[in-house]
């Protein structure tokens, strides 16, 4: 089933002296995580991971305040919040008291680091700090997260989550070489996350998986095979900029298991003989963040709302043996968050974020997807 399976890039591999924040903040920082990498093949045959680097304040609490990092035109700033106004139980973030809805801020800021791997994804060739992507506009003032890269024709399209008080939106970058990226702007509005553009057109249109979030869902009828909650939806576009939600539902949580009670997209769907292969994450409720596993489905090549084949059994689970050397840096466990896939002959090269900490690369035999239930 699996061949190579290892962590190929970790927080210790990031040189913060070359960070976009270096020398601009007036505070000591460290790498909370280098994880959730978008993945694609470069024109030279090597692979590119676009790694999310979460750069965190080493001492967020001082002088009776907790601090957040924020970008604004002209540089980076520390915002101070009185401790009595917030809940600081989680060192990665803090929640505001009151207000009638959840309001939070982060003690880290994420930016994207291009990491070039060899052709089979087993070793780092170069780290391109000069091509790092950092906040550049107000709607990115709290950071840029979780890149997913698709190649459609002769263009690379990269979706990211841009974080700000204005909205938690999906933004699009485009490129002809996967190194020099142009910010195209917001393509999905607040809390519509995990946008994955199909690697090819369907019926002459761009297609994407999306995942809008909310606090209210309506129940399916008693005895339904589906469970109410976040699902993987679909949208179409004439130009990859203007998206219309598809009328039919996509992949929904199944009532037969709680392991996928919450779900979201993982890798951009790629076309194989049987249809569109998509890897996605399911979250089983447990503890603070839940247990994240990777699953797979094959979607109809002409109508991706139709699932041709899938399995309830997970494809990937968290691998504690891989993160054992990083135990002192870990802050969550039981999390594998798959974010990229590239075909490589008789196998697929799959990139994941492991424990919200490091980048994991796994080789998966193509035969795994030949059967299902």
UniProtKB/TrEMBL annotation:
GO molecular function, one term: hydrolase activity
Superkingdom of origin: Bacteria
Protein keywords: Glycosyltransferase, Hydrolase, Transferase
A Pfam family the protein falls into: Glyco_hydro_130
Family according to the record: Belongs to the glycosyl hydrolase 130 family.
Protein name per Swiss-Prot or TrEMBL: Glycoside hydrolase family 130 protein
């Amino acid at each position: 089933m699996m061949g190579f399976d290892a962590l190929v890039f970790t927080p210790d591999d990031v040189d913060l002296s070359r960070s976009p924040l270096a020398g601009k903040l007036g505070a000591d920082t460290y790498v909370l995580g280098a994880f959730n990498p978008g993945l694609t093949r470069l024109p030279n045959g090597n692979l590119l991971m676009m790694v999310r680097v979460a750069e965190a304040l080493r001492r967020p609490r001082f002088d009776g305040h907790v601090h957040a990092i924020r970008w604004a035109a002209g540089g980076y700033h520390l915002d101070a919040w009185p401790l009595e106004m917030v809940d600081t139980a989680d060192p990665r973030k803090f929640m505001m008291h009151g207000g009638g809805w959840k309001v939070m801020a982060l003690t880290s800021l994420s930016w994207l680091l291009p990491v070039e791997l060899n052709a089979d994804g087993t070793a780092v060739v170069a780290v391109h700090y000069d091509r790092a992507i950092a906040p550049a506009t107000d709607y990115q003032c709290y950071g840029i997260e979780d890149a997913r890269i698709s190649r459609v024709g002769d263009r690379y399209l990269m979706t990211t989550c841009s974080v700000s008080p204005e909205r938690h939106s999906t933004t699009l970058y485009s490129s002809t070489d996967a190194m020099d990226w142009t910010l195209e702007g917001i393509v999905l509005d607040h809390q519509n996350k995990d946008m994955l553009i199909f690697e090819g057109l369907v019926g002459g249109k761009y297609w994407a998986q999306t995942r809008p979030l909310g606090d209210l869902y309506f129940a399916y009828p008693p005895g339904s095979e589906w469970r109410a909650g976040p699902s993987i939806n679909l949208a179409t576009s004439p130009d990859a900029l203007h998206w219309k939600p598809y009328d039919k539902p996509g992949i929904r949580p199944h009532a037969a298991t709680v392991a996928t009670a919450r779900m979201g997209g993982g890798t951009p769907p790629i076309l194989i003989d049987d249809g569109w292969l998509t890897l996605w994450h399911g979250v089983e409720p447990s503890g603070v963040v839940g247990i994240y596993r990777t699953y797979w489905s094959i979607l109809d090549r002409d109508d991706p709302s139709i699932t041709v084949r899938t399995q309830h059994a997970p494809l990937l689970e968290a691998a504690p043996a891989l993160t054992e050397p990083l135990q002192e840096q870990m802050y969550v466990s039981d999390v594998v968050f798959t974010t990229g896939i590239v075909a490589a002959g008789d196998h697929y090269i799959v990139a994941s974020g492991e424990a919200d900490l490091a980048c994991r690369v796994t080789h998966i035999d193509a035969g795994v997807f030949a059967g299902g239930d």
